[in-house]
Write a structure and sequence with these properties.
Largest sheet of chain A: 7 strands, mixed
Shape of chain A: globular
Oligomer: homodimer
Number of helices of chain A: 15
Radius of gyration of chain A: 22 Å
Structural class of chain A: alpha/beta
Strand content of chain A: 5-15%
Number of domains of chain A: 2
CATH architecture of the largest domain in chain A: 3-Layer(aba) Sandwich
CATH superfamily of the largest domain in chain A: Type I PLP-dependent aspartate aminotransferase-like (Major domain)
Strand order of the largest sheet of chain A: 2-8-7-6-5-3-4
Largest interface: A-B, 77 and 77 residues
Distance between the termini of chain A: 41 Å
Amino acid sequence: MKTIYLDNNATTRVAPEVVEEMLPYFSERYGNPSSMHSFGGQVGKEIRAAREKLAGLLGARPEEIIYTSCGTESDNTAIRAALAANPGRRQVVTTRVEHPAVKSLCEHLVKEGYRVTFVPVDRSGRLDVDYLYEHMTEDTAIVSVMWANNETGVLFPVEQIARAAKERGIAFHTDAVQAVGKIPIDLSAGAIDMLSLSGHKLHGPKGIGALYVRKGTKFSPFLIGGHQESGRRGGTENTAAIIGLGRAAEFVSDHMEEENTRVKALRDRLESALLSRVTHAVVNGDPENRLPNTSNIAFEFVEGESILLMMDGHGICASSGSACTSGSLEPSHVLRAMGVPYTAAHGSIRFSLSLYNTEEEIDYVVEHLPPIIERLRQMSPFWQHACEKTA
Amino acid sequence: MKTIYLDNNATTRVAPEVVEEMLPYFSERYGNPSSMHSFGGQVGKEIRAAREKLAGLLGARPEEIIYTSCGTESDNTAIRAALAANPGRRQVVTTRVEHPAVKSLCEHLVKEGYRVTFVPVDRSGRLDVDYLYEHMTEDTAIVSVMWANNETGVLFPVEQIARAAKERGIAFHTDAVQAVGKIPIDLSAGAIDMLSLSGHKLHGPKGIGALYVRKGTKFSPFLIGGHQESGRRGGTENTAAIIGLGRAAEFVSDHMEEENTRVKALRDRLESALLSRVTHAVVNGDPENRLPNTSNIAFEFVEGESILLMMDGHGICASSGSACTSGSLEPSHVLRAMGVPYTAAHGSIRFSLSLYNTEEEIDYVVEHLPPIIERLRQMSPFWQHACEKTA
């Protein structure tokens, strides 16, 4: 059975051209880039070239990139760095719909005695920016707002919020793990101080992330050890993955237009076909201001887990919420924050596409998913109850 | 020119059989192991198998393994976890010869208000265990002692120290990054609470490490995010590298005897040949109680950097001190702690072998290195001064 992979916000296929570039760095050019000999030194040069490629994708300078092991480490580093750099300030401002990498950390910070403001969103997942502005105070060490929501794809006005934070002398961080590679980003002109990204969300390998830290931003290392990353992150450089991430940055940059035309059109085709063929189905999240690859659809009166299982039987991969929260039976905190009713939140499915998806795959899903929903609804007491009420 | 790689304590060649095992996890089995669909779920199964392999190398249970991104992260996690778990205790006991991953962190902890005891070593690099025991107090949150020194290869009696710590109710951690894969380790019977290891030191990939945490040990996560690693370390699993580390664990286990016979014999052959051909050359560190692959030799009255440069001209890779401290012109903190005189510490070279080294390579070094030392000494004012004094 062919796999139809529509779960690219969980992780992506490493582009074969990325793997090809990584390969020599395992068993041939395996030297430690910090070593004194040229066998290691030549690897150091390749890392510098990869850093320039990644910086290029963001409109950043190479020295503003710190390699980390993942988006979670980037997020932890950014927020901890701001707190360490401003020990007198005890408040963090973030949103109610962040990824667990920020959300769990912020909940932990509350236990450590910090004050955390979780800014609400409306029914469409749009951020209450006025609420955010009202809650920035002289005690705020950092404002951390995601660029694109991983579940709904909704985009937040992070550049505007970053400017507002800067005016108040507050550091601004964005978890841009879902945005980088999908929408054009140029940090050079803006006010964003720190930005997190993850290799495996943009057709690079797992186990590599980066934190952009604007020149001049107060910083304090999170992983403390050797002098790597100009003393900002200890640990031997993950050479192959850094090289791979550089190539992946080129890859997504080369395909940025395709992502925002062909992939977006596939997403729209999937969404409109499903909405027209399935009753009581609605899109979660502002349809006008979303990532081009994401569609989160609530199929009312059915269980998301059951839909996923039955889709899995047809080789279709999607998700209900974040892979980082799976295993939990609670409905998504993102959809709850948006006020999506229980009966809809539980049956919400995230479809997230990539450059590798084809029209045939979308048509296959459009053919097989509506009967699945139909069958599940026939078995659902909620559905029967709803039908009786309507009738 | 052929590369003769004698810098395996800095990093190792990824075994080709390890790379082969990793390869499918980039562009084929790329699913997120936390995903609900079987495309991701099957990867989760492979991770469980890899975890069992790594646990097997250590005599540990699979659930006692937490994957991290590197040895540095493992060390930071262990020490921070012990401090978080024992907030009333404000002292850390460690040694004066730790790797920067522990040393820099401990120096940082002093700035945070913790009290750190750095236990001294003698002229042979042997730990002053009595001093250590005398400095364990009711205020000690953790004792962290490396298993094998990365520069000299000297082994510390960590199992004995762990038992002493346990008797006093103190957590014990060992940075075993250099020991794992080179000497047999069985944690099941002992008293070690936490152990750090790194994939790239044992023919696995860079960017993956592990922290062993004995069942029942109080623990608090360092990287806070998703539910991965049973809630003990957030961040998407580094699938390919985890699979690779599992295979590497098998690889070094299969070659453990060879490491301690053939590789050790090569190291001894190199060492004795150099000592017999070069005057004023001495081994740094207890020759009786060392890793089988490491030889640290002081060539008095010459600069280590110059030796490395000239060896590099012959394709020979070695190091002066740790790659993680390179770039610094200070002589090694390990050799200074041992009281190695300045004129000897500055000309100390670490040779660290691996399973891939051959007799021919060793003979090549024995042929080319003595003339290099000779030439450098002819140019050295210290050498001329020393000769005049002797004459």
